[in-house]
């Protein structure tokens, strides 16, 4: 197994290289599709059809945005976790989808990058639904672990032979600090998910935002502070409106 780390639009992209095929540990951004395919063709000197499986850890733009397009161009399969409902379903979900795309552009601008095409379907159409403890088809060294809290369907991917785990957005590195992701819809689930990964005692933790961490002697990434209340788009909007009203009355 060879692990390649690519720089995505706002996140790290992890491509796993096996003789029998390639595994993409997340669906990346819509804007990352060209660079992923170019890396496979030009750097690895392999046909793009060697990409066999994409896992989507959750539905945010930098994790699911390129999945459908990559499947169309390579013929690969898409696998994801068993969420209780589609994350962006309904009017509220569609509003969140647009907001999350705008937030991705905001993060990119903060990193000095130009605005790029990010639109993708808010409803994922996977080939496979995976549950806690399942192994990835054709890549059975990798095990699926449910790590919900950030959204309702987050998964992490545990490579048992090397004690390495990809946790997507379970924690985020900002400068030298480790923080919870935005949003946190289920604080109690999130707290249990962090403890679940910590108790595995992984040697290496792969972050979508922060790179690969050596955790063999413990690590502060597991000490992130979990809010007691959900931190969501709607709650943030209500808080800002309340502040505006308070200032206008004052």
UniProtKB/TrEMBL annotation:
Superkingdom of origin: Bacteria
UniProt domain Metallo-beta-lactamase: residue ranges: 10-209
Pfam families named in the record: Lactamase_B (PF00753)
InterPro entries recorded: Metallo-B-lactamas, NDM-1-like, RibonucZ/Hydroxyglut_hydro
Protein's name according to its UniProt entry: Metallo-beta-lactamase domain-containing protein
Coiled-coil region(s): none
